# Entry
Amino acid sequence: MSHIMSPTFPTVRLRRLRQHPVIRDLIRETELNLDDLVHAIFIKGDKGDKQPVLSMPGHYQIPLSKLDEEIEEIVNLGIKSIMIFGVPSTKDAYGSDSFDDQGIMQKAIRQIKKLAPDLLIISDICFCQYTDHGHCGFMDDHHGCIDLNNDKTLELLVKQSISHVQAGANMLAPSGMIDGAVITLRRALDEAGFEHIPLMGHTVKYSSAMYGPFRQATEGAPKYGDRSRYQMDPANGNEALREAAVDIMEGADILLIKPAHTYLDIIYRVKQTYPHIPLCAYHPSAEFSMIKAAAEKGWINEKRVVFEVLTSIKRAGADFIVNYYTKEVARWIINKE
Ligand code: PBG
Ligand code: ZN
# Structure
Protein backbone atom coordinates (compact mmCIF):
# COMPACT_ATOMS: atom_id res chain seq x y z
CA MET A 1 0.00 0.00 0.00
CA SER A 2 1.44 3.35 -0.97
CA HIS A 3 1.64 6.01 1.67
CA ILE A 4 -1.04 8.00 -0.11
CA MET A 5 -3.59 5.26 0.59
CA SER A 6 -2.94 5.35 4.31
CA PRO A 7 -6.21 6.07 6.16
CA THR A 8 -4.51 8.78 8.17
CA PHE A 9 -3.06 10.62 5.20
CA PRO A 10 -4.94 13.94 5.19
CA THR A 11 -5.46 14.41 1.46
CA VAL A 12 -7.30 11.11 1.28
CA ARG A 13 -9.73 12.30 3.88
CA LEU A 14 -10.29 15.58 2.01
CA ARG A 15 -10.92 13.71 -1.23
CA ARG A 16 -13.45 11.49 0.52
CA LEU A 17 -15.33 14.61 1.56
CA ARG A 18 -15.18 16.10 -1.94
CA GLN A 19 -16.40 13.07 -3.84
CA HIS A 20 -20.10 13.64 -3.06
CA PRO A 21 -21.71 16.97 -3.98
CA VAL A 22 -24.01 16.94 -0.94
CA ILE A 23 -21.06 16.47 1.40
CA ARG A 24 -19.31 19.34 -0.38
CA ASP A 25 -22.33 21.53 0.39
CA LEU A 26 -22.47 20.36 4.00
CA ILE A 27 -18.90 21.34 4.74
CA ARG A 28 -18.69 24.47 2.59
CA GLU A 29 -17.23 27.32 4.66
CA THR A 30 -18.25 30.36 2.64
CA GLU A 31 -21.53 30.84 0.87
CA LEU A 32 -22.34 33.74 -1.40
CA ASN A 33 -26.00 34.73 -1.12
CA LEU A 34 -27.95 37.42 -2.92
CA ASP A 35 -28.68 38.85 0.54
CA ASP A 36 -24.95 39.62 0.90
CA LEU A 37 -24.90 41.89 -2.14
CA VAL A 38 -25.76 45.58 -2.39
CA HIS A 39 -26.34 46.78 -5.95
CA ALA A 40 -24.83 50.16 -6.88
CA ILE A 41 -26.57 52.43 -9.43
CA PHE A 42 -26.11 55.90 -10.93
CA ILE A 43 -28.92 58.39 -11.33
CA LYS A 44 -28.83 61.54 -13.48
CA GLY A 45 -31.40 63.94 -14.88
CA ASP A 46 -35.19 64.12 -14.98
CA LYS A 47 -35.97 62.72 -18.38
CA GLY A 48 -34.54 61.35 -21.60
CA ASP A 49 -32.81 58.05 -22.24
CA LYS A 50 -30.53 56.04 -20.02
CA GLN A 51 -26.95 57.05 -20.85
CA PRO A 52 -24.57 54.10 -21.00
CA VAL A 53 -21.44 54.36 -18.86
CA LEU A 54 -18.95 53.35 -21.55
CA SER A 55 -16.35 51.96 -19.18
CA MET A 56 -18.96 49.95 -17.25
CA PRO A 57 -20.94 47.83 -19.74
CA GLY A 58 -24.48 47.22 -18.50
CA HIS A 59 -24.44 50.33 -16.27
CA TYR A 60 -26.18 53.60 -17.05
CA GLN A 61 -26.80 57.07 -15.78
CA ILE A 62 -30.50 56.52 -15.19
CA PRO A 63 -32.86 59.51 -15.47
CA LEU A 64 -35.72 59.78 -12.97
CA SER A 65 -38.18 59.03 -15.79
CA LYS A 66 -36.57 55.57 -16.21
CA LEU A 67 -35.91 54.92 -12.53
CA ASP A 68 -39.18 53.09 -11.81
CA GLU A 69 -38.40 50.49 -14.50
CA GLU A 70 -34.95 49.95 -13.07
CA ILE A 71 -36.21 49.61 -9.50
CA GLU A 72 -38.94 47.18 -10.57
CA GLU A 73 -36.34 45.04 -12.29
CA ILE A 74 -34.10 45.11 -9.21
CA VAL A 75 -36.94 44.17 -6.87
CA ASN A 76 -38.19 41.42 -9.19
CA LEU A 77 -34.72 39.90 -9.22
CA GLY A 78 -34.95 39.55 -5.44
CA ILE A 79 -32.36 42.22 -4.66
CA LYS A 80 -33.03 43.77 -1.26
CA SER A 81 -30.59 46.67 -1.05
CA ILE A 82 -29.09 49.34 -3.27
CA MET A 83 -26.47 52.03 -2.96
CA ILE A 84 -27.28 55.06 -5.05
CA PHE A 85 -25.10 57.77 -6.53
CA GLY A 86 -26.67 60.96 -7.83
CA VAL A 87 -25.12 62.99 -10.62
CA PRO A 88 -26.40 66.59 -10.32
CA SER A 89 -27.14 68.85 -13.28
CA THR A 90 -25.40 71.80 -11.64
CA LYS A 91 -22.19 71.98 -9.65
CA ASP A 92 -20.79 74.74 -7.45
CA ALA A 93 -18.15 75.36 -4.78
CA TYR A 94 -20.43 74.05 -1.99
CA GLY A 95 -21.98 71.09 -3.78
CA SER A 96 -25.39 72.67 -3.10
CA ASP A 97 -27.40 70.14 -5.10
CA SER A 98 -26.44 67.52 -2.51
CA PHE A 99 -28.45 69.22 0.25
CA ASP A 100 -31.21 70.72 -1.87
CA ASP A 101 -34.65 69.27 -1.19
CA GLN A 102 -35.09 69.21 -4.99
CA GLY A 103 -31.63 67.72 -5.57
CA ILE A 104 -31.14 64.59 -7.67
CA MET A 105 -30.65 62.30 -4.64
CA GLN A 106 -33.63 63.67 -2.73
CA LYS A 107 -35.93 63.25 -5.73
CA ALA A 108 -34.57 59.78 -6.48
CA ILE A 109 -34.85 58.56 -2.89
CA ARG A 110 -38.46 59.75 -2.58
CA GLN A 111 -39.36 58.12 -5.90
CA ILE A 112 -37.74 54.79 -4.96
CA LYS A 113 -39.34 54.75 -1.50
CA LYS A 114 -42.76 55.34 -3.03
CA LEU A 115 -42.39 52.49 -5.49
CA ALA A 116 -40.49 50.01 -3.31
CA PRO A 117 -40.78 50.93 0.36
CA ASP A 118 -39.01 47.74 1.50
CA LEU A 119 -35.95 48.14 -0.70
CA LEU A 120 -33.07 49.28 1.53
CA ILE A 121 -31.52 52.50 0.27
CA ILE A 122 -27.94 53.18 1.27
CA SER A 123 -27.07 56.69 0.33
CA ASP A 124 -23.52 57.70 -0.56
CA ILE A 125 -22.57 60.85 1.30
CA CYS A 126 -19.84 62.85 -0.40
CA PHE A 127 -19.21 65.99 -2.43
CA CYS A 128 -17.02 65.02 -5.37
CA GLN A 129 -19.81 64.77 -7.93
CA TYR A 130 -21.49 67.95 -6.65
CA THR A 131 -18.56 70.36 -6.45
CA ASP A 132 -17.24 72.23 -9.48
CA HIS A 133 -13.64 71.24 -8.57
CA GLY A 134 -14.49 67.55 -8.04
CA HIS A 135 -12.99 67.16 -4.57
CA CYS A 136 -14.77 65.37 -1.73
CA GLY A 137 -15.38 68.50 0.33
CA PHE A 138 -15.10 72.25 0.60
CA MET A 139 -11.78 73.61 -0.65
CA ASP A 140 -10.09 76.83 0.38
CA ASP A 141 -6.76 78.53 0.76
CA HIS A 142 -4.45 77.22 3.48
CA HIS A 143 -1.37 79.47 3.56
CA GLY A 144 -1.20 79.72 -0.20
CA CYS A 145 -2.15 76.12 -0.84
CA ILE A 146 -5.67 75.07 -1.90
CA ASP A 147 -6.74 72.21 0.34
CA LEU A 148 -9.80 70.63 1.86
CA ASN A 149 -11.35 72.58 4.73
CA ASN A 150 -12.30 69.77 7.07
CA ASP A 151 -14.56 71.71 9.47
CA LYS A 152 -16.53 73.42 6.74
CA THR A 153 -16.88 70.07 4.96
CA LEU A 154 -18.30 68.49 8.13
CA GLU A 155 -20.91 71.25 8.33
CA LEU A 156 -21.96 70.62 4.73
CA LEU A 157 -21.92 66.83 5.25
CA VAL A 158 -24.45 67.25 8.06
CA LYS A 159 -26.77 69.21 5.76
CA GLN A 160 -26.46 66.60 3.02
CA SER A 161 -27.02 63.70 5.42
CA ILE A 162 -30.10 65.11 7.13
CA SER A 163 -31.57 65.98 3.77
CA HIS A 164 -31.06 62.42 2.41
CA VAL A 165 -32.57 60.87 5.53
CA GLN A 166 -35.56 63.23 5.38
CA ALA A 167 -36.09 62.05 1.80
CA GLY A 168 -36.14 58.43 3.04
CA ALA A 169 -32.60 57.00 2.96
CA ASN A 170 -32.25 53.99 5.30
CA MET A 171 -28.52 54.09 5.85
CA LEU A 172 -25.74 56.58 5.16
CA ALA A 173 -22.31 55.79 3.79
CA PRO A 174 -20.03 58.81 4.14
CA SER A 175 -17.36 58.05 1.52
CA GLY A 176 -15.02 61.02 1.57
CA MET A 177 -12.59 59.98 4.35
CA ILE A 178 -13.27 63.32 6.04
CA ASP A 179 -11.87 63.43 9.59
CA GLY A 180 -14.58 63.26 12.23
CA ALA A 181 -17.39 62.54 9.75
CA VAL A 182 -18.79 59.57 11.64
CA ILE A 183 -19.00 61.20 15.08
CA THR A 184 -20.27 64.47 13.64
CA LEU A 185 -22.98 62.78 11.58
CA ARG A 186 -23.96 60.50 14.49
CA ARG A 187 -24.52 63.51 16.77
CA ALA A 188 -26.41 65.42 14.09
CA LEU A 189 -28.64 62.48 13.22
CA ASP A 190 -29.41 61.80 16.89
CA GLU A 191 -30.25 65.44 17.52
CA ALA A 192 -32.57 65.48 14.52
CA GLY A 193 -34.43 62.39 15.80
CA PHE A 194 -32.80 59.92 13.40
CA GLU A 195 -31.17 57.67 16.03
CA HIS A 196 -32.30 54.61 14.08
CA ILE A 197 -30.30 55.42 10.92
CA PRO A 198 -27.03 53.41 10.80
CA LEU A 199 -23.75 54.90 9.63
CA MET A 200 -21.45 52.85 7.44
CA GLY A 201 -18.18 54.75 7.45
CA HIS A 202 -15.78 54.40 4.54
CA THR A 203 -13.30 53.40 7.19
CA VAL A 204 -10.52 52.20 4.96
CA LYS A 205 -10.52 53.84 1.56
CA TYR A 206 -7.38 53.69 -0.52
CA SER A 207 -6.25 56.29 -3.01
CA SER A 208 -6.79 53.75 -5.73
CA ALA A 209 -6.76 53.56 -9.51
CA MET A 210 -9.72 51.18 -9.19
CA TYR A 211 -12.20 54.11 -9.16
CA GLY A 212 -11.56 55.32 -12.72
CA PRO A 213 -14.78 54.19 -14.41
CA PHE A 214 -16.83 55.40 -11.43
CA ARG A 215 -15.47 58.90 -11.87
CA GLN A 216 -16.68 58.80 -15.47
CA ALA A 217 -20.07 57.53 -14.36
CA THR A 218 -20.47 60.25 -11.72
CA GLU A 219 -18.57 62.96 -13.60
CA GLY A 220 -16.67 63.50 -10.36
CA ALA A 221 -12.98 63.37 -11.22
CA PRO A 222 -10.99 66.11 -9.44
CA LYS A 223 -10.22 69.04 -11.76
CA TYR A 224 -6.83 69.55 -10.11
CA GLY A 225 -4.68 67.51 -7.73
CA ASP A 226 -5.75 64.09 -6.48
CA ARG A 227 -7.32 62.55 -3.40
CA SER A 228 -4.13 61.18 -1.88
CA ARG A 229 -4.25 63.63 1.05
CA TYR A 230 -7.50 62.25 2.35
CA GLN A 231 -7.36 58.68 0.98
CA MET A 232 -4.92 55.99 2.07
CA ASP A 233 -1.63 54.97 0.52
CA PRO A 234 -2.06 51.55 -1.16
CA ALA A 235 1.30 50.53 0.26
CA ASN A 236 0.08 50.71 3.87
CA GLY A 237 -1.76 47.98 5.75
CA ASN A 238 -1.23 48.78 9.44
CA GLU A 239 -2.85 52.18 8.93
CA ALA A 240 -6.09 50.40 8.09
CA LEU A 241 -6.27 49.14 11.67
CA ARG A 242 -5.79 52.68 13.01
CA GLU A 243 -8.55 53.98 10.73
CA ALA A 244 -10.82 51.16 11.89
CA ALA A 245 -10.12 51.91 15.56
CA VAL A 246 -11.03 55.56 15.05
CA ASP A 247 -14.27 54.83 13.19
CA ILE A 248 -15.38 52.35 15.85
CA MET A 249 -14.65 54.92 18.56
CA GLU A 250 -16.61 57.53 16.60
CA GLY A 251 -19.63 55.23 16.50
CA ALA A 252 -19.63 53.63 13.06
CA ASP A 253 -22.20 50.82 12.93
CA ILE A 254 -20.55 49.11 9.98
CA LEU A 255 -17.00 49.42 8.69
CA LEU A 256 -16.38 49.64 4.95
CA ILE A 257 -13.23 48.77 3.05
CA LYS A 258 -12.64 49.89 -0.53
CA PRO A 259 -11.39 48.51 -2.92
CA ALA A 260 -12.04 44.86 -2.18
CA HIS A 261 -10.37 42.32 -4.43
CA THR A 262 -6.98 44.05 -4.44
CA TYR A 263 -7.16 44.47 -0.63
CA LEU A 264 -8.17 41.02 0.64
CA ASP A 265 -5.37 41.15 3.19
CA ILE A 266 -6.84 44.35 4.64
CA ILE A 267 -10.33 42.85 4.81
CA TYR A 268 -8.86 39.81 6.58
CA ARG A 269 -6.87 41.84 9.10
CA VAL A 270 -9.68 44.23 9.96
CA LYS A 271 -12.14 41.33 10.43
CA GLN A 272 -9.66 39.37 12.56
CA THR A 273 -9.02 42.45 14.71
CA TYR A 274 -12.68 43.48 15.04
CA PRO A 275 -14.71 40.30 14.52
CA HIS A 276 -17.67 41.81 16.39
CA ILE A 277 -18.15 44.75 14.00
CA PRO A 278 -20.04 44.18 10.73
CA LEU A 279 -17.74 44.60 7.76
CA CYS A 280 -18.66 45.68 4.25
CA ALA A 281 -16.32 45.52 1.26
CA TYR A 282 -16.80 47.68 -1.82
CA HIS A 283 -15.94 45.96 -5.10
CA PRO A 284 -15.32 49.13 -7.10
CA SER A 285 -15.86 50.13 -10.69
CA ALA A 286 -12.50 49.13 -12.18
CA GLU A 287 -12.57 45.75 -10.45
CA PHE A 288 -15.95 45.31 -12.17
CA SER A 289 -14.78 46.66 -15.54
CA MET A 290 -11.65 44.50 -15.68
CA ILE A 291 -13.74 41.36 -15.38
CA LYS A 292 -16.28 42.71 -17.90
CA ALA A 293 -13.61 43.55 -20.44
CA ALA A 294 -11.98 40.12 -20.26
CA ALA A 295 -15.42 38.49 -20.44
CA GLU A 296 -16.37 40.53 -23.52
CA LYS A 297 -13.21 39.34 -25.20
CA GLY A 298 -14.17 35.77 -24.40
CA TRP A 299 -11.01 35.25 -22.37
CA ILE A 300 -12.67 34.17 -19.14
CA ASN A 301 -15.79 32.46 -17.91
CA GLU A 302 -17.54 35.53 -16.52
CA LYS A 303 -19.95 33.80 -14.18
CA ARG A 304 -17.29 31.59 -12.61
CA VAL A 305 -14.86 34.48 -12.21
CA VAL A 306 -17.51 36.70 -10.60
CA PHE A 307 -18.59 34.01 -8.12
CA GLU A 308 -14.97 33.22 -7.30
CA VAL A 309 -14.01 36.87 -6.78
CA LEU A 310 -17.08 37.72 -4.66
CA THR A 311 -16.67 34.51 -2.65
CA SER A 312 -13.02 35.34 -2.01
CA ILE A 313 -14.06 38.73 -0.61
CA LYS A 314 -16.47 37.02 1.79
CA ARG A 315 -13.93 34.34 2.66
CA ALA A 316 -11.44 37.07 3.59
CA GLY A 317 -13.95 38.40 6.13
CA ALA A 318 -16.51 40.71 4.51
CA ASP A 319 -20.10 40.23 5.69
CA PHE A 320 -21.50 41.83 2.57
CA ILE A 321 -20.33 43.46 -0.65
CA VAL A 322 -21.34 46.59 -2.53
CA ASN A 323 -20.79 45.85 -6.20
CA TYR A 324 -21.94 46.29 -9.81
CA TYR A 325 -22.65 42.62 -10.54
CA THR A 326 -25.64 42.03 -8.25
CA LYS A 327 -28.22 41.96 -11.05
CA GLU A 328 -26.20 39.44 -13.03
CA VAL A 329 -25.58 37.30 -9.95
CA ALA A 330 -29.33 37.35 -9.24
CA ARG A 331 -30.07 36.21 -12.81
CA TRP A 332 -27.45 33.50 -12.62
CA ILE A 333 -28.96 32.25 -9.36
CA ILE A 334 -32.56 32.42 -10.63
CA ASN A 335 -31.81 30.76 -13.97
CA LYS A 336 -29.41 28.28 -12.39
CA GLU A 337 -27.28 28.89 -15.48
C1 PBG B 1 -15.93 59.24 -3.85
C2 PBG B 1 -16.26 57.86 -4.23
C3 PBG B 1 -15.44 57.00 -4.92
C4 PBG B 1 -16.12 55.83 -5.16
C5 PBG B 1 -17.33 55.95 -4.51
N1 PBG B 1 -17.42 57.23 -3.94
C6 PBG B 1 -14.04 57.06 -5.33
C7 PBG B 1 -13.30 58.25 -5.57
O1 PBG B 1 -13.40 58.77 -6.70
O2 PBG B 1 -12.55 58.64 -4.70
C8 PBG B 1 -15.56 54.71 -5.97
C9 PBG B 1 -16.49 53.66 -6.29
C10 PBG B 1 -16.15 52.86 -7.48
O3 PBG B 1 -15.10 53.00 -8.13
O4 PBG B 1 -16.98 52.02 -7.80
N2 PBG B 1 -16.55 59.73 -2.76
ZN1 ZN C 1 -15.94 61.90 -2.85
About this structure: Residues 170 and 211 are 25 Å apart (CA to CA). DSSP finds twelve helices and twelve strands in the chain. Residues 1-29 form one domain.
